Amino acid sequence: MTDGYFETRLAYDHRRTVLWKALWKFYFSRKISAGECVLELGCGYGDFINNVTATKRIAVDQWPQFPDYLDAGVTAIVSSVTDLSAIPDQTVDFAFASNLFEHLTVAECEIVLTQLILKLRPGGRFTLIQPNYRYCSAEYFDDYTHITAWSHISLADFLTKNGFVVSKTTPKFLPLTLKSRLPVSELLIGIFLASPIKPFAKQMIIETYKK
Fold it and tell me: What span, in angstroms and rounded, lies between the C-alpha atoms of 56 and 136?
């Protein structure tokens, strides 16, 4: 994606910082240990990786400006996610991607997974947050960079086919976008995550681990 994408579809929004701070506090902090190595693929503004507490933090994105948004201590790799050669094999404990695979072809996603499984330690985890096409088909292709449609069924099967074990699938995890009139606060996000009822949720989360 070019700089133009970050000026239109993904312009900087302080609400995104609030969201990821809350997601770390209420969800991901329970999934990641402080002594681990964490990798984010397609990190954009680095909102996830900046909030992570870990011994080693690595962020990959092809957008040349993304390192400017990273906190000190985060290793930036300016590269397509289809090239993870800069990361040593079997060094990553937890890998993460948010809203990434819809921007890639199926073949490109397979390349990512083939490389990623080499970078993960035995038992290493890979978690994805994605728009769930089953629940947002009407607006899925409003983003002109969306290429491939994924549902929680198709993506889980695709991950399994490529050597990952799916440990948890949540078809409705988060609302599709921050572009609404609803307030964004840590407290409200925490309540939303804890609630068994997820109104407006159209993004899924799939958690996996390496065999």
Answer: 35
Domain limits, the chain: 3-210
Measured over the CA atoms of residue 132, residue 41, residue 116 and residue 84, the dihedral's sign is positive
- Please classify residue 196 by burial: count the beta carbons closer than 10 Å to its beta carbon, then call 0-12 exposed, 13-18 middle and 19+ buried: exposed
* Side-chain half-sphere exposure of 71, counting CA atoms within 13 A: 13
32-79 residue pLDDT tens: 999 999 999 999 999 999 999 999 999 999 999 999 999 999 999 999
Question: How far is it, in rounded angstroms, from Cα 121 to Cα 94?
Answer: 9
Does residue 6 have a pLDDT over 60? Answer: no
Q: Which residues contact 56 (CB under 8 A, 6 or more apart)?
A: 36, 37, 38, 75, 91
Report d(CA 201, CA 84) in Å as an integer.
32
Q: Is 74 left (phi over 0), alpha (psi -120 to 50) or beta?
A: beta
3-210, what's its fold? Rossmann fold (3.40.50)
